Amino acid sequence: MDSAMTSAPQHFLNTQDWTRARLDAVLADAARMKHEPIGDALKGRSIALVFFNPSLRTRTSFELGAFQLGGHAVVLQPGKDAWPIEFDLGTVMDSDAEEHIAEVARVLSQYVDMIGVRAFPKFVDWSVDREDRVLKGFAKYATVPVINMETITHPCQELAHVLALQEHFGSSDLRGKKYVLTWTYHPRPLNTAVANSALTIATRMGMDVTLLCPTPEYQLDERYMDWAEANVIESGGSLAVSHDIDSAYAGADVVYAKSWGALPYFGNWAPEKPIRDRYKHFMVDEAKMALTRDGVFSHCLPLRRNVKASDAVMDSPRCIAVQEAGNRLHVQKAVMRALVAR
Amino acid sequence: MDSAMTSAPQHFLNTQDWTRARLDAVLADAARMKHEPIGDALKGRSIALVFFNPSLRTRTSFELGAFQLGGHAVVLQPGKDAWPIEFDLGTVMDSDAEEHIAEVARVLSQYVDMIGVRAFPKFVDWSVDREDRVLKGFAKYATVPVINMETITHPCQELAHVLALQEHFGSSDLRGKKYVLTWTYHPRPLNTAVANSALTIATRMGMDVTLLCPTPEYQLDERYMDWAEANVIESGGSLAVSHDIDSAYAGADVVYAKSWGALPYFGNWAPEKPIRDRYKHFMVDEAKMALTRDGVFSHCLPLRRNVKASDAVMDSPRCIAVQEAGNRLHVQKAVMRALVAR
Amino acid sequence: MDSAMTSAPQHFLNTQDWTRARLDAVLADAARMKHEPIGDALKGRSIALVFFNPSLRTRTSFELGAFQLGGHAVVLQPGKDAWPIEFDLGTVMDSDAEEHIAEVARVLSQYVDMIGVRAFPKFVDWSVDREDRVLKGFAKYATVPVINMETITHPCQELAHVLALQEHFGSSDLRGKKYVLTWTYHPRPLNTAVANSALTIATRMGMDVTLLCPTPEYQLDERYMDWAEANVIESGGSLAVSHDIDSAYAGADVVYAKSWGALPYFGNWAPEKPIRDRYKHFMVDEAKMALTRDGVFSHCLPLRRNVKASDAVMDSPRCIAVQEAGNRLHVQKAVMRALVAR
Q: Which keywords does this Swiss-Prot/TrEMBL entry list (chains A, B, C) (predicted)?
């Protein structure tokens, strides 16, 4: 359906690629559609949702978002109910992959108006995973807009998170809020995507951001640290890294939790396990939340209760994780509208 | 989409929870929609279909039912294309489950207007399975109506079954009909859900019901025997248990077949195998059907031919299993309409 | 939804079953809808897409095709998210299959207006696979039209291929074109379906067709050779088999590539492996394409780059494989319209 397309399509790969004005417009549109969910902005339009990994919220919210605007989402799972895909250039494809991203992206572009992609890291070599080549492969070859549904960042989650904070504080201006992004324990080393994203968007919104993690090894990739620093310069606010729970929580307005694996151990996770096991006490609990300034808690979900956050925190009225998840629907509808608007 | 919801949502977990008047209204609405399938009662609305087990009829009929009424169904398969879920309270979630039913149900309630749940027993411990905790977990935490798509009962099948019988006999009043629920052989011990449901609805409709099974060990759980006895008191009709094929079939108007595992061997199935193997002759065949009063045969499907019922019975005009399956579409549309009607 | 159906339904199992006039009408309708994609010819209608094997293009294009015409597609994967199915008659079903095609096809016919079926060969015994019994089982028992979504032929691909050639040559009349169907290497022995189909439709369109393959063992099943010969008599054109690359490519207007396993080794593939390994040079590359008369290249996809065709061929403007894949959407919409038109 790209017949009328004469220039390269716009994509939504990272919030950092979009102007603040455009992000603000999407957030405002999302807030509006939350109260008026049914429309026809995508009437007769379609999106392919390409999942290389499981999903509950992303799949449901994109599928319903398309439906509520008159469109249709097709869900594809390459290697499961579709064919495995090659992403390297020039390969003699005599191994597992049955087709190349060049054909997949071009063919899907014949059928649909947008393509969403979820592709988590392989967790073997961070220098490879950090190139985000699955997403970039789609963006390179597709002739329709591509949306990041979580790869090594999760920009849709960022927007849902910010919308939930704006609702909570009753203002679209989040400057001056003290924001803590805290690492938490999980039995396995997880993707840094949501942590990268939280750091990116919290600084973009001009908040005073503290990245709380057990040791310097748990710092995030320099690309996202650099983005955050650039954002501080542009938007005001501040950025600090801390390994001290009490001072980080002290006076916080927002606590956002996420577990992730330490990048220096990427692909060689055995020695990281005893380190992470020493920091189970990073779990968000009532005692820690009591240190905040009546702070609000959130998480991207899925969340392991009593591992990442206690039952008491999750069931507290200060937990807005469910609202944030609900906002996925609204912000993604706004992103889709922004990408296909004529 | 639960913003206007001020009290606990209504659910459709079991027919026994609903008044007879309400069930009759749903059946009448289903019969009407069978002749006028397209409508807009669910325009812009949605349902999440959460499948922990396979499905052909249930999935297809719910998905199309939503579509034919202007709505949309999202199909989710936790542990397969969504995350595995924890149902216990207070658990330290450091094992397989990535999120808790509290979040799953609350988040889905943000997106959809109804949630359908299919969750078969685990077949390890009946005292656990009989608590139906997956379904009850959704019902507890969801803020939108929950529909049982088969757990340890199968109320949607009950309605489709009754509608097919009403069509066959040309009357909504089934009182006075002799109804036989017969156990049949299957190589594996199966769920008692449809048997529990058949016993429940047949007595609810005031029929003279015989539960035919090989031995007393194949009787159903006391909860459903109790429901059936209460129904006989309320609706008239009768309830008997028999282990004699000839007398059970004699003069029957309806033969409904189902295989299930004997509850005393639940989770320790090896010693049950030689018992069930002795009763392969419970298969429904022409000789048995000849004992009935020109009786009609049905089954919930899927059905193994020449194991549960012979080819001759299945291909006979007295077999209404396909019509019953077709009615799933109509009764489920009526249930969805009843649950979201304003 | 077959209540108004009084005679046997029409199916689309093979192009060879349809008159040339009807195929031409479908192609014309597809070309028209390519420029006017949104309509209501399937308003309130539905199709079940039954996949026994993976799919990307077929699933996406059927699902979107139904949507763009106001209908809805339900995707089913028997043995994966639905129950395994028995296709033999009279079987005592005490093995894996939980239900019989008779019930599956009849029940689906209660729900939907059409059924699409993808069922690849089992690759064990060609004398069994060539009976196409999964597709024929659906066609026998369904009371609604059945569409072949690739079994041992791939008629939807045929139509998309022809439409792409008609677009390329700017004429619906393809007579006089020199058409080469070339075998190519693939690490595994593949289905002959698309090769059978290409041979069938290319001769039907009256082209001068050469089947290029390594040895006589790679000729196609006599059924399709016979169809092709009958088509030559009816439509003009010609049919030749060649094992010589240079003369086959010389002066060609169309090169269509496909890999397949040699039928004499069906089910006993080990001795075929060293044979096929000797013919890796059948890969379509620029040197071979230079022998053609400015020929156009296509393939049904998925395609392994630098195994079946080189990067240079795939990325050349003479490659129309992506357009052909895009045409799947349009021709399938036209087929669905043709089957449910009243």
A: Amino-acid biosynthesis, Arginine biosynthesis, Cytoplasm, Transferase
